[in-house]
Amino acid sequence: MGRFWRGFLPFQLWRFLVINTKMYLIAKGVIGPRHT
Amino acid sequence: MRPQVVILGAGFAGHTAALHLSHLVKGLADVTVVAPRNRFTWFPSLIWVGIGAMREEEVVFSLAPVYERLGIAYVDGRATTVNLDAQTVTVQTPTAENRAIRYDFLLNATGPYLNFEATPGLGPSAGTTASVCSVEHAVDARKKYLEIVKDLKSGKHRRLVVGVGHATATCEGAAFEYLMNVDADLRARGVRDNAELVWLSNEPEPGDFGVDGIEARKRGILVTGAGMVRMLLDEASVRQIIGAGVTAVASGEISYEQIGEDPATLAYDFAMLIPQFRGIPLQYVGGDGTDMTAKMTMPNGFMRVDADYTPKTYDRYAGSDWPALYRSPHYANVYAAGIAFAPPHPMSKGKKTASGMSVIAMAPRTGMASGIMGRTVAYNIADQVAGREPSHRAPMSAMPAACIASMGKSIWTGSAASIIMVPVARDYATYPGYGRDLRLCDLDVGRSGAWTKRLLHSAFMWKLQAKPGWRMIPE
Predict the structure, then answer these.
(1) Does residue B137 form part of some domain?
(2) What ipTM was assigned to the predicted interfaces of this complex?
(3) Disulfide-capable partner of B397 in B102, B364, B367, B425 (CB 3.0 to 4.6 Å)?
């Protein structure tokens, strides 16, 4: 990813939402393999 | 008398297990945590303490008040001996008294012994290199680092070496974060041009991080951790020494062997090198006093659990090698989780130097993985307390991991690499091709990572103090 996109706030805000939602759903076991 | 559950250690695995057990076996069993120093440390933020970007008080909290609120007994001390037949743990308290604690179920979550001795001359106690593996080490690293910053400000040129201090060390990710934070900090202070940064790692290639690398599919294109880390190191003008095992450290000089190269030395003005990890010295004995440590642990001191420890080469590693219950194969009431359990093998490919020294980035057990293991063991102990067989499984080959590798703390100018791996250990039987589910794996660099890292710090300091709603935050 180019340097511009790494600091472009609207894109980074979108990525923040995507990554955190994905991490939460995976950690909860909603998506991906079941654990525990 | 109610069953006694004893947890040794209060890091990510032990403390998480204690939190879950406090409600899973409430009224059915008593839970006791044995750990020294009455302190929980949020290790992922020690890299910031090590450059002076965060105070040490911000990464720790007292365990005793949390346990008192949850009805968990807390013993300040270190376990020295486990009598497996008498079911007692001998604990040495701060006043050097020995105290025996009876258990019905035992969890060994004692974390790593920082084995600086494996590399002659390495570490803060030798007065040479720094470390960020404990609060005290991070404070020492900060002191040494700020001295170097003074030199740089006065116009002197200095070489800073960051990486790992042994051919079989782990936690390359934490060292990488420290390196990139040093780079960001020196730029912010306007002295980066006076500093030469060197990345000294035992990984077979940059971005391996002891997990055999990372891939993700972005808009149909395969992106790799190796490509990403190489780009970041090049952009930051960091010299790379990859596939290297440090053999000795003297004041101002590091000796190392590198794959495909002759042994070499590297002069340094400041170095932060992560040591090799071993299991905490803990003796296991039988009822008649027979030493059973060799039966219970692997040669590296980590405890054997329900993994397949048959020696294998890299091309024969399988997802099914990894333990699922984290229970001793010899004692059904003894578990090990977090760094304390013995992995069946590394995840990364090892290589040998010209002299025959094995250079292998060992498998990391990060906070998220350790937390999941701790929770899994808590549920399995709760099963056994209720008279059932353990039913909860979380092998690292079916376990996700999210890593946020900081590259500057500031939410305005900082950045981080956000990495999601599903699963941590490759499982080619379930995921042909790459051994991982590339639809779920993610790899990203940007300012949003700096926000996520700060968010995780606050969220987990909240969760781990068992504040209202803590159970809504997953491990």
Answers:
(1) no
(2) 0.95
(3) B425
